[in-house]
Write a structure and sequence with these properties.
The chain has one domain. The longest helix has 36 residues. α1 crosses α2, α2 runs antiparallel to α3 and α2 packs parallel to α4. It is built from 4 helices and no strands. The N and C termini lie far apart (43 Å). The N terminus is likely disordered.
């Protein structure tokens, strides 16, 4: 039974990556078409892809920050005042979850933009 579960999990991951690629390709084509239709602009596939990845990173970062706030606010509402240790523990747990969410959203994107946005996410939560 365990082998079937692993196979289904892997299949789901492959479908997610393929879906992300389709969304990425559609966005890339749209950015390229926009460049073609803009006067005095030379279409560039690389810059279109970079723009798509940057927008995807920013969206994933924003969603992760919303998750962070949603996790941390209710936990601290009834706890304040409390010790610094407790605040740091709650922050660490919420941050770990939002960082996992961000990385899951960015699966399949291995670029400097993802790494830069991930480090910005750490700064945002500090």
């Amino acid at each position: 039974m365990r082998a079937i579960t692993v196979t289904l999990s892997l299949s789901h991951r492959v479908k997610y990556i393929l879906c992300s690629l389709h969304v990425g390709l559609a966005a890339l084509v749209q950015l390229y078409i926009d460049a073609i239709n803009t006067p005095n602009v030379i279409p560039n596939v690389q810059s279109a892809w970079d723009t798509f990845v940057e927008v995807k990173c920013l969206d994933a970062k924003q969603a992760a920050l919303v998750t962070y706030d949603a996790l941390l606010t209710p936990q601290l509402t009834d706890e304040l005042p409390c010790s610094n240790v407790k605040i740091r523990m709650l922050h660490s747990n919420a941050f770990d979850m939002c960082q996992e969410q961000f990385m899951a959203e960015m699966t399949g994107f291995s670029t400097n933009t993802v790494e830069r946005t991930a480090s910005e996410l750490k700064v945002s939560d500090s």
